[in-house]
Amino acid sequence: MLTDIILKSIGKHIHLTDDETAYFISLLHPKQLNRKQFLLKEGEICKYSAFVISGCLRGYTIDENGQEHVMNFAPVGWWIADMYSLISQRPGTLYIEAPEPAEVLLLSKVKQELLFQEVPKFERFFRIITENSLVAHQQRLIDNLSLPAEERYTNFCKRYPSLINSVPKKDIASYIGVTPEFFSRMMGKMLRG
Fold first, then answer.
1. Which of 49, 77, 89, 151 could staple 147 via S-S, CB 3.0–4.6 A?
2. Rounded distance, CA 86 to CA 109, Å?
3. Nearest 5°: phi and psi at 12?
4. In the structure, what pLDDT confidence band is assigned to residue 191 with cuts at 50, 70 and 90?
5. Cα-flanking dihedrals φ and ψ of residue 106, to 5°?
6. For the whole model, what pTM was predicted?
7. Nearest to 56 by CA among 36, 84, 82
8. Confidence label for 40 from pLDDT (cuts 50, 70 and 90)
9. Which residues pair with 59 in a beta bridge?
10. Domains, the chain, ordered by start
11. Using CA atoms, how far apart are residues 73 and 82, in angstroms rounded to an integer?
């Protein structure tokens, strides 16, 4: 069933009755994304949080020189959104794209607010998800400021083990803050030992 993955994820943090489960599922909107299809573009207002059922999404920005900077990935079982835009309902800065075909379940901000009113325990669930995201973001920032590229790559592998061989190497390089050329040299050096 399409919702099994999301219900298992939620079940790690809160217990739902059958009625609460049915109500939650009724608020979700499934969406298929093709390879290279955008869920969100810079300048758009983020109206949904997306939960990945299959495939992967990546969030990134593009600087004034046209260089992409990968901020995060969302493999199966992860949520993704432009949090600034979603919360403020102002135009966002992130592109959210499927580097490979993906299937997501969308929860709109409006329906999320209804969910909080009808099933208040979901506020706890989303607080936990947001706290985990904040901690991971802070740790990544500290890593990028203080760790060499090899250790940042090792941390990427720990955080996203399912993506090591499935996302383009240029995206991994961008995520750890190095050029694709440096990444290739680094990987060669790491493989030689």
1. 151
2. 7
3. -70, -20
4. confident
5. -100, 140
6. 0.93
7. 36
8. very high
9. 72, 96
10. 4-119 (2.60.120.10)
11. 12
Residue 108 neighbours by CB under 8 Å, 6+ apart = 27, 29, 47, 48
Alpha helices in the chain (DSSP H): 4-11, 18-27, 83-88, 109-118, 121-146, 149-159, 169-176, 180-192
Amino acid occupying residue 77? G
- Coil, strand or helix: which one is 37? coil
How many Å apart are CA 105 and CA 47, to the nearest integer? Answer: 13
Summarize pLDDT for 46-74 with one digit per residue, the tens.
999 999 999 999 999 999 999 999 999 99
pLDDT for 41 beyond 90: yes
CA distance 104 to 32: 6
Q: Cα 62 from chain centroid?
A: 17
- Cα 11 from Cα 8, distance rounded (Å): 5
CA of residue 54 relative to chain centroid, distance = 13
Cα–Cα distances (Å) from 156 to 49, 71, 96, 127, 193, in that order, read 23, 12, 19, 24, 19
